[in-house]
Structures are given as structure tokens and as C-alpha cells.
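Give me C-alpha cells for this 337-residue protein.
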Amino acid sequence: MGLFGNQLANVVEWEEYRDDVIFWKWTNREIKKGSKLVIRPGQDAIFMYNGKVEGIFTDEGSFDIESDIIPFLSTLKGFKFGFNSGMRAEVLFVNTKEFTVKWGTKNPVMLASPTLPGGLPVRAHGTFSFKVSDYMCLIDTIAGVKKQFTVEDVRERVSSSLDTLLMTWLSKAGSSVIELQQKSVEICNGIKGDLDMELFKIGISITNFTMAPLSYTEEVARMTDKAAAQSMVGDMNKYSQMAVADSLGNARGSNAGIDMASMQMGMMMGQQMANSMAAGMNMQNQSMPNQGASNMQYNPGANGQMGTPSAGPKFCPQCGAPVSGAKFCPECGTKLQ
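Here you go.
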């Protein structure tokens, strides 16, 4: 016995432990006389023999399998280790902690919209938490055919049905993004319940489900920004106020005073140019009806009233020479007007 004692003993423990693994199976090896079972914090150990669950151990620590474990197994209480033989069994180590996973929609979720026949595309993301709740169900559906089960496996199961659940609960809650945000708690509770029913089939329970505010797709966000910019430009007073607010927000450090002075000077120059242009246009409009009046001569009428225009003689009445509207004849000097 002393010759083989150290060779037969082994340690049954979770090897190469990872935080993202939900369960790991110690298998295909014999448990020898003198072997130890090591259960670390956050782990449970399930003994399986011939495909049947023999016992579940939840206390952390190091235990002698022959004296501390076998006496509590359901059908192996009288098992005795032979001289050079062991017990071929499986031990399933289960991670008992609560896992929190990020989720996001694979494709945009279409919200009903009166202006868009195909619907308004939005995206959603958040987190969900889960933990193992039913060991027997987990063994029957998953552990019987897999050596380990990871968080990514659960995420894939959730993602396969999440888009459909989101569309269902969003359509129940309302049609506008603002209304949906107001009912986010109701939506999250509904999705949590449906996911819990789905994962309960494999022995996993959904403990929490959260959703961040909905966001538009990139295409819709660009269209929304463009529409808002066009609306703002239509109201120049509002546009100027927003420009001032942006300048105040962008001013930093020692350049803040210079930026403010430059902004004020630019606004004053722009206002002066606008006033000058307006004054010039008013003067032009006032002078247009009298255009050409300086080239005409008027004879006063009765009582100082404006008379009819007089063009003057074209020829001198004395010598007949052409005068072209002059006041004196260039040939004989006769006064013409």
C-alpha cells in the first residue's frame, strides 16, 4: 500500500478556472483512495456516477473523498476502494455567482411612424444579469453533452430572441421615442419576464434587465440634425442666440476675452453693414420718382404754383441762327429767355 499510495491519490478540483465559465466538468479519470475534493468560494460541486447525480456539495474547502464525500453519496455509501482500483465518476463544478452581460440589437428595431411607411429605425442596448437556478435542469439540457458552458453561450441564446421581444414590448408601450422612454421600466420588466421563461428551460434565471435610452440609427440622426439646422436658420434671431451660446462654450483660458471681443466686434460690424445697406436702399427709393428732373426747366404758374416745363426757342427770333436752348443768341446777342 505504501508503494502505490502516492501514485493513486489525486485532487478533484476546477482546473483552469475562468470568470466567464458557468460550469466545468471534471471527467474521464478515476477517483483514487486518498483523493481530495477542493471547492473554492463561489463554486458548488455535483458528483455524478453512471450519468446520475449522486450528491451536491456547496461548502467550500478541501475534503477527503473517501471519508467526507462518499458517505453522503446517495447510492455509493458502501463503496470501498480496492488495492489498485478507483472509482470512475464525474464531478461538475458550477459557478454560483451572478453574471452581468451587455447586450445590443443586431438590427435596428422599427417603430411605427405615420410619416415613414417602413417605420422609424432605432437601436437599443443595455445589460442583463443571470445565474444558475436549477442544477438538475442544467445537467439534463446542457451539461450532459458539453464539458463547459460559458457566458457567451447564454448571450447568443438571449440575442437570438431579444430583437423580437423588443419590437413586441416597444409596440405595446407607445409609438414615440419620448413615450417609450417614460415607460422604460415597464418595457424592461416585460422583457425580463419573457427572457426568464425562455432560459428557465436550461436551468438559468434572469435576475435583472436594463435598457439605455433609445438612439436613432446614423442615417436618421443625420437627417434629424439637418432638419433642426434648417429650422434654426429660418429664425435668424434664434440662430444668432445659438451662435453666441456656442462661442461662450468654446471660449477657454486666456483666449476667452479675445474670443468674446472678436465675437462682439463681428456682430457690431455686421449690424452696421446691415444698417448702411438699408439706409442706401431707402435713399435710392426716395430719389427714383425725381430722376431726370434737374435737366428740365419750369415756369412758375399763378400764385407761385409749379407751372408747365419750358424748353426755350431753338432759333433766334432776330437773325434766325440756331441757339440750342441758350439764353443769348451766339450771332446777334439777342436775349432769348
